[in-house]
Amino acid sequence: MKKVLYVYGGPEYHPTQAGGKILSEMLARDGRFELELTRDLDALAALPGGQYAAVVLYATGFVDDLTPAREAGLLNFVRGGGGFVGVHAAADCFRGSRAFVEMLGGEFAWHPEHHEFKVELVKKDHYLTTRVPDFSVFDEMYHLQNFDPARVTVLAQTQWQGKQHPMAYVRDYGAGRVAYLANGHTAQAWKHPEFRKLLLRAVAWSAGAEAPTRTIKCGLLGYGPLFNMGKGHAGWINATPGLEAVAMCDANPARVEAARSELPGLAGYYTALDDMLALPGLDLVVNILPHNQHAPATLHILNAGKHVVLEKPFSLTVAEANEMIATAHGRGLMLSLFHNRRWDGDYLTMRALIDQGLIGEVFHIECGLASYAHPGFWWRSDKAISGGVMHDWGAHYIDWILNLVPAPLTQLNGNFQKRVWNAVTNEDFGQVTMRFANGCAADFLISHISASSRPLWRINGTQGAIERHGGDTLTLISYVNGFRQESTVKVTLPSYGSSEYYRTVADHLLFGEALAVTPEQARRVIGVIEAAQLSAQQGHSVPPVEGCA
């Protein structure tokens, strides 16, 4: 594991220490780097000793503090092949050393007030920017002086009064690499996934990482007409740089012919899984089969040495989940669940409101889907195949809840009822109440026999609440300023997160970055459903299933 030194300090109006803690958590999750934090500037003098692969500087207010020994240590370290990453106020640091300013490639001139602005990626094929989209962020926009774009490679920029200003650039410095990111003042910036991605990539690239040129070749298992999921996955895969759909398999010859028409040019069209698995160069299989076939087919694929993306739900039981996870880990393969709805616009808006402290600490959540309608005659209404009423939309909602509450589960209570639609075997009504170690409780229900409904979401916090009924708005009630404020917040309707999800798969397999949706997270959802079913059978609440708290 490579070691990285993070140097911080200066006036507290820049979150230099907090940034270091966030970066440390990011790198720990990534698993390739170990971060050491220091505010001792003398550590720069000792850099050429070979202990570190890169140094990250986020400090401010130091003008003449780069003494000759510190300057020589830092510059010789980078010239000799070390990496350097400057974050935000690094451009307003050590300005008494013109050699440092020359290495960095520019220095701070001024900034307007904090505001929301767009960061445009202008070079999308660099290691830092591959698969990273343009984004908007509320931050402090740094303007630089003594900056010559001809001496660096500008990766991202923003516009201010008709002029473009660099937001990210890289350059070589001797045998070393230098990256500078102009964002990073506000909490919103440090929480922003694209800024975090650029920062992680800057560390890795400056430490010597190179983007691989290979492509992950993907096969589709299951091409049923329902929701056009086979065609959809192929489109999302092919839209992701580094991934390519090359084969499909469906036991129904008619669906194979449909794929030939809708996805012409694949390397293979199959009716038998083993035939597709024998395709030379196949790296990954997307399992889109009905729920009861998720575990057996996935185990077969993993044992054939292929990575797996699995449609939700992960499995019918925790035992199946455990076997899949053990097999994937034992063979060193990726196993991930298509929890694409984590990127739904309304969910991300609610998370942002919570993260900004607008409703205080969340202590109660209620959510779900309720209607009075026959669930239909199809395999999703057959409990032996689907797993039950909670295994479909319930997988999404439970995953959302678990990602909203930053605490382990302590107790679960389930309520399942079969009262009206006896021509199908799924339950008519399912409900689970979750209690967490931080005192929060969450109540999810899904019903086909509820003539009266409740909001899709109601999230209560110690200083306010969020309520969502549908459409393109939600209601925010906040007492953060000492009096009641009620507002309507516009939300982006769901984009279904499919492209965003596959970006994370490519980033993991090609760049070695942490997997966004881990199999352990997917198992936790199944653990909630399994505990709820057990609770309903026993008539009392139960603790979480082992490994699923």
Shape: globular
Unreliable residue stretches:
none
CATH class term of the largest domain: Alpha Beta
CATH homolog superfamily of the largest domain: Class I glutamine amidotransferase (GATase) domain
Can you describe what's shown?
This protein is an alpha/beta fold. The chain folds into 3 domains: about 200 residues, Rossmann fold, CATH 3.40.50; about 120 residues, NAD(P)-binding Rossmann-like Domain (Rossmann fold, 3-Layer(aba) Sandwich), CATH 3.40.50; about 200 residues, Dihydrodipicolinate Reductase, domain 2 (2-Layer Sandwich). The strands form 4 sheets. It has a 9-stranded mixed β-sheet with strand order 2-1-3-4-11-10-9-6-7. An 8-stranded mixed β-sheet has the order 19-20-21-18-22-23-24-25. It has a 6-stranded parallel β-sheet with strand order 14-13-12-15-16-17, sandwiched between helices. Helix 9 runs parallel beside helix 10 and helix 10 packs antiparallel against helix 15. The longest helix has 20 residues.
Give keywords:
alpha/beta, Rossmann fold, 9-stranded mixed β-sheet, 8-stranded mixed β-sheet, globular
Describe, in short, the structure shown:
This protein has helices spanning 16-30, 68-79, 98-104, 187-191, 193-206, 229-238, 253-262, 273-277, 294-303, 318-331, 345-355, 383-386, 393-404, 498-511, 519-538; strands at residues 2-9, 33-38, 54-59, 83-87, 107-110, 115-121, 135-139, 143-145, 153-160, 163-173, 176-181, 216-221, 243-249, 268-270, 284-287, 307-310, 335-337, 362-370, 409-417, 429-436, 441-447, 457-461, 464-470, 473-478, 485-490. By secondary structure, the chain is an alpha/beta fold.
